[in-house]
Amino acid sequence: MSINVPPKQEPQTLALNLTLVRLPHLTDYLPHLQTHTTPLEHNNFYHPSDGFYLSHSDVILRRTIYDISSQSHDHQHSAYHRAGPRKQIFYQPQNVRAAIVTCGGLCPGLNTVIRELVVGLSEQYGVPEIFGIKAGYRGFYSSDPVRLDVNLVHSWHKRGGTVLETSRGGFDLYKIVNAIQDRGYNQVYIIGGDGTLRGAVQIFNEIHRRKLNVGVAAIPKTVDNDVGIIDRSFGFQTAVEKAQQAISAAHVEAESAPNGIGLVKLMGRSTGHIALNSTLSSRDVDCCLIPENNFYLEGKGGLFEFLDNRLKQNGHAVVVVAEGAGQDMIPRTDAQKQEVDESGNPVFLDVGVWLKSELKRWWERDHKGELFTVKYIDPTYMIRAVTANATDSLYCTLLAHSAIHGIMAGYTGFVAGPINGNYAYIPLDEIAATKNQVDTKDHNWAWVRSVTTQPDFQRA
Question: Domain of life here (predicted)?
């Protein structure tokens, strides 16, 4: 028997052309700010050693996978400042007045982030004045803040929702920045999704224009996982875990009826990450419909043909649909086409209700007189309102502490989040302009199709 041995390869030295993404800093417009030694040096819970403190030269690569047989490694590659504590900070902690606000919809982990911001500011840096802004952006100018301390927030991580309350809309730039200035806040922590982040960019720019000594950090919150650049947003893994209960219930209902279909609508306005990952986790799903992959109902290769065959084979089927899928197929009036919510997003019609109706219409037309059942489950508000699971809870802590260390180091106008497993600071304007969408050409979507054996919905 002969064994083919690959030829010996000599070690190669590859040179990467790195571009450090510029991160805003207070000294960009306040050049005479004084530095101070971090109180972590004298904190009984820390024993700083070599490598504990990070410097301006500690970076994280946005891209970590390369094909060394191509010339791609000769191109420019982005690097971001690594998140973590710095030995020299630009605030005297005893003079800090920090504000924390939650905006937009609910998401598992909101209270955990608030709690860890308060605990981190108080116990790591000794910040005496921390305030919660009620009911989203409008709370800056429409109500009095809530004084927060470690005792008050002690058990908040065990509660769903946000104790500070939240809302959509209410964004009035000048009223918000005026309130920040009038109340003497010099650190602002904003927790929210893509719309909130776009607002945070405007707040940062106006603070910069006024040359205020105020640091602005955002912590990305979107259960849909649609924020770009970072690995994931908090609450996403909890949502996928909780979605399993709805899928399991739909499967039981479908199995328990002749020609039964269980239909589950999951969150995902513009991206199908929850639907995709829930499908892969469950393995009870027969078809997964997401916004990034158009589908059709009638004809060869359509949804009806696929479900017809699946019902003949198994007697039941489970369909998972993201809320943003199929929106262009749902009939709507001219007024509905123009309707937007408080955040300026188009108002979606309920794809689950529409699809259930279409399924029943199809069966009545093509299988008149035969038994058929569609059970529709929408667990949206049940998922949004739960507490974070252990993985997300830990993640929320790391996000909060990363944001604190960044602001204390004088950075501003940034988002804290993981890139390839390491925590980094990303400029607000860059992350607000990106979307994390499902790539239907990558292996994850191919895996979904191999698990469900669903069609690609590409018309011949």
Answer: Eukaryota
Identify whether the C-beta of residue 346 lies closer than 8 Å to the C-beta of residue 340: yes
Annotate 271-292 with DSSP letters as a single string: --HHHHHHHHHH---SEEE-TT
CB 413 within 8 A of CB 216: yes
Q: Rg for the chain (alpha carbons), in Å?
A: 25
Within 10 angstroms of residue 97's Cβ, the number of other Cβ atoms is 18
- Residues 6 or more apart from 96 whose CB is under 8 A from it? 121, 125, 127, 128, 129, 186, 187
Nearest Cα to Cα of residue 13 among 61, 73, 63, 79: 73
In tens, the pLDDT along 14-57 reads 667 788 999 999 999 999 999 999 999 988 887 777 889 999 89
* Residues acting as catalytic residues: 224
- DSSP H or E segment with residue 194: helix 194-210
Strands 215-220 and 414-419: parallel
pTM for the structure as a whole: 0.92
Distance (Å, whole) CA 149 – CA 41: 23
Contact 231, 286 (CB under 8 A): no
389-393 long-range contacts, CB within 8 A, separation 24+: 389/108, 389/237, 389/238, 389/241, 391/237, 391/238, 392/108, 392/109, 392/112, 392/234, 392/235, 392/236, 392/237, 392/238, 393/109, 393/112, 393/157
* Token duo for residue 308: 């017809």
At residue 72 the predicted structure's pLDDT band, cuts being 50, 70 and 90, is low
Residues in the chain: 460
pLDDT of residue 290: 98
Q: State how far the alpha carbon of 254 is from the alpha carbons of 263, 285, 317, 449, 455, in Å.
A: 9, 11, 6, 21, 21
The helix/strand count (H/E) of the chain reads as: 14, 16
Spell out a b/e string for 159-182, using b for 16 or more CB atoms within 10 Å of the CB, else e: ebbbbbebbbebbeeeebbebbee
Reading the block at residue 270, the tokens are 């513009």
| Mean per-residue pLDDT over the chain, rounded | 93
